[in-house]
Amino acid sequence: MTRIKLLSTDFDGTLFTEFEHPPIPSELQEQIARLQAEGARWIINTGRDMSSLMEALGRAGIEVEPDYLVLVEREVYQHRDSQYVPLPEWNEACHRAHAELFARIRPDVPAMVAWINARFHARIYEDAYSPLCLITSTNGDMDLILDHLEHYCRRVPDLTVVRNDVYARFSHRAYNKGTALAEITRRLGLSREAVFAAGDHLNDLPMLSRAYAACLAAPANAVPPVRAAVLEQGGYVSQASQGAGVAEALRYYLGAGGA
Ligand SMILES: [Mg+2]
Cα of 10 to ligand 1 centre, how many Å? Predict the structure, then answer.
């Protein structure tokens, strides 16, 4: 029996590579299937929303089925009878916290939009998850805009900006990939000692913490702050990229190299 009872994997850049065939390596699918057969549960912990993730999973034609989804870095869904159903207590509390927080910042959004538009060419929009969502042309532009938005966040309790590459949105500090993982761990009656977490970008940092997972991993393509955070906490940074990198990290933790 392995000591890993719960896997939390980011999707894009960690598990899934859109133009690879298959987009999730067969070895990784087999490892996940074997762990699930031994009783472990698997979470896809992503910034994508439901329809976008379902489309990508459908097109990838994968054989394994996640037990849980964490969507938009904060909402939790459980696989039941071939569907993903929301965890009502968590998702309702999450929705309420965001509604209250976003009502407080909404009057300031037009000034932020004007500040960004005066300096950058960026896609700016509102969606169901944030009153301000951003897509920039370059990571350099996003670095500068984020400095500005993070300065604003310091004045608003509970507000944070979640960034993944050239995408960013506002969020409540209490709801992220890490706290959602902790909630699933708690509901399963497990401890962080039994949890494996893997991710490649800044929005993964909240779950790439020893507070939530004893087995931390990053594929070779992870951005430098993610590789650094994983190494500083004694985690494993793979030689291989994306899904092959996650497979390598699982081999490490499940094999002789693991604790
Ligand atoms: Mg990613």
Answer: 6
Tell me the CA distances in angstroms from 208 to 61, 141, 192, 233, 253, one per residue in order. 28, 25, 12, 9, 15
Residue showing tokens 């909404």: 106
Distance of alpha carbon 120 from alpha carbon 118, whole angstroms: 6
Q: What is the pTM of this model?
A: 0.95
Contact 209, 234 (CB under 8 A): no
What pLDDT was estimated at residue 240?
Answer: 97
Domain 6-73+176-254, CATH homologous superfamily name and number: HAD superfamily/HAD-like (3.40.50.1000)
Radius of gyration of the chain (CA): 18
In the chain, which stretches have pLDDT less than 70?
1-2, 256-259
Sign of the alpha-carbon torsion through 220, 224, 229, 234: positive
Enter the tokens of residue 97: 């916290």
197 residue type, one letter: A
Distance 107 CA to ligand 1 centre (A): 31
Locate the domains of the chain by residue range: 6-73+176-254, 91-172
Distance 7 CA to ligand 1 centre (A): 15
